[in-house]
Structures are given as C-alpha cells and as structure tokens.
Specification:
Elements: E1 2-11, E2 17-25, E3 36-48, E4 51-56, E5 68-71, E6 73-74, E7 87-88, E8 94-95
Antiparallel strand pairs: 1-2, 1-5, 2-3, 3-4, 5-8, 6-7
Amino acid sequence: QGEVVNVQSRKEADENIYTYVDIKVSNYVKGTGPEEVTIKQFGGRIVENGEVMAVRASDTPEFAVGESGTIYLDQPDTPFYAGKFYTTVCATGIHK
C-alpha cells in the first residue's frame, strides 16, 4: 500500500519513451521491501522539439501524484527491470 509521489516520462537511448512512477510505501501486505519503489513501464508523454509525443500500451495503468491505495507489484528478473524497477501485476494500477 502506498502513495504516488512522482511520475516522470522520458525518452531513452533506445528511442523508446518510458514512464517512471515513484511510490512511497506505507505498508507491505505481503513480504518486505524498501520505503520507496519505482515502477518502470513502457510509454508516456513527453515534449520534444516543441512537439508532444505520446505512447501508451493498452494494458498500462496511468498514475497521478497523490493517488494512494493498494498496488500489486512484481519485480521480474529481466534486464528491463534490472533488479531495480517494478511492474504492476494488473492493468488497473491503484486499488482504492
């Protein structure tokens, strides 16, 4: 359970846009972990050279700073997450 404290999208070296969502954890329902976790997901909205670029996968939840509730997360053992980032288990994002 936690609260969204930061949402940032950016284009990376591979030319894809990714969004990073920082969650301040208030309670682990199952297991333990750090006080803050970062979700990494494909897509987002950026401004580049004065133009808005937006990409979004249909199964990717959207997050807003200040939202809070239960978030179901996983940390897959893949290079994309690099043992540092998390992914949502379901496309609904935060359960209030």
